[in-house]
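FAQ: What does a multi-protein file look like?

Like this. Sequence, then tokens, then the next protein.
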Amino acid sequence: MYKNSLVSIEDLSNEEIEDILDLAQEMQQNLRAFPTLASGNIMASLFFEASTRTRGSFESAMNRLGGRTITTTGIGSSSLEKGETLADTVRVWSSYSDLIVLRHPWEGAARLAVDYASVPVINAGDGGHEHPTQTLCDLFTLRAEKRNLEGLKVALCGDLKHGRTVHSLIFGLLRFGAELYFVPGEGLDLPEHVKTKIEAQYKRPIEKIPAGDFQALYGGQTGGSQDGEPLDALYMTPSKPHLRTLFEDEPNFEFKTSPGREVVFYVTRRQTERETGSPSAQAPVGKYPRISKATMKKRFSRATVLHPLPRVDELSYDMDDDHRSKYFVQAAYGVPVRMALISLILELKPWKKAGERRAESQVEEPTIVATQGIECANPNCVTNRESQSCESRFLVFTEPQVRFTCNYCGWEIAPIFYGTQQRGRKIYKPIGKLRFKSQHQLFQFRFFCSEDEALGEGFVSVSSAVETAAPVFEVKD
């Protein structure tokens, strides 16, 4: 973990995740058995966005460990309201505490906090970016219910565009070999940068298929929606060849349940507070997957239903007493999971499976660059909200083409041209022609996301440069 902090679920190795879950299982047996473990430690609970379960379970966890909590809630109750930067706030609270738990509406706020804090930071949710401790709770719940995550079929339903719990959970599940189905609300599909990451970094091809039995979640019958238009789900295989080769003889492959087939539904509400362009309260609601006893009656008799809560109308109250519903158990598990995480981050308990690996290896940080022409396009990214505290920096990837991922919020920038100097002329070329041996060579180039950008800065295309080059004459006798 970077500076012993947790910003993204990807900050944790598989062994570290297993250590957290194993310790949480031990603590869950008797939550009152550790009353002095964190004695003398203070946790700063900085929640600048509304929270019930996350804040409550973190503070309960620290209290059960014998530590103390100091807190502030809402931007309006802090000096941020007066114009203080988040960087300064974090600096100050670091001197008051041994651990900071931060929730903030800006994406990348937790990464910025780590840069300025003198104590470990735990991300309790940063905008629509990530919520890694919720993923730890989700994985703990799934392991308790299913015992094994490998090959588990998980349908992620609802707002996949803005749902930070979903974004973290996807990467957590991929690490342990689960098989995922994406069942989004209309217009609320996964962001493109998340899809690219799934395919390029995790090597898990995404294939669009007919909704099949998932059609029932939209209120329609299998094979067609209420208005007769087909609905699609996105299927991703965990460790098999691409579906086009797997099912080349079955181009219309769709999800079908069968007797004894277990499916986990991870349901999320529509995140109206993160939508822009229209008043959230009046935003029109399109097709949206909903869980009720009626939709689950026949097809999903052995399903398990999870929800990070709070819910609105995507999860019927008639599911509360259903044996398949585990969302209140899931919420309760937040206390032992966060007790375990606090204990390990504060080094009150030893890492076990991860201990030897952490001691023997120095994990090399990925190459992070600030390069010409690349800026994060996410308006809610902390680099655009508080630019004086953080320089725009990007992780560099070369497959399937050169692309940059914001080091703070994860948004992707995929330039289509690059510019360079050739014999005193400013030339731009398609990004596909870029070749370099080292990522450090990127500083030699200027990148453009459109041809107009290149032309506006005085670059000309390589073909134009050839056409206007000075002629060469041959003198004949």
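And here is the next protein:
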Amino acid sequence: MLNLTPEERKVILFVLGLAFCGLILSNLIKVNRHIEKIIIPQIQLAKININRVTLDELSGIRCVPPKLAQRIIEFRNLHHEFSSLDELKNIKGIGNQRYEKLKEVFFVE
């Protein structure tokens, strides 16, 4: 067996204890995220006008990553305003799946 001094045993136990606590905290965080999605679902009560939304507001929407938000604003500035939501499909990064999600979030006025 290993011949360890009492100090070495304490250090090893301390490191193992820290690793164990880290694993427990990591799992608790993962479980909390899953529970939070079930208990507090992200519900959007009203649709957003795509022609009036700001970059900050776009970035805060769950299904719109920051780079895509920037592309949407650039497209809107380049082509003036959206005349229909179908124009979102012309933006890089918006395929059919993402378009279906965005269609539920935005409207054109």
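Q: Is there any per-entry metadata?
A: Some entries carry free-text notes. For the entry above: Helices lie at 6-39, 55-59, 66-78, 96-105.
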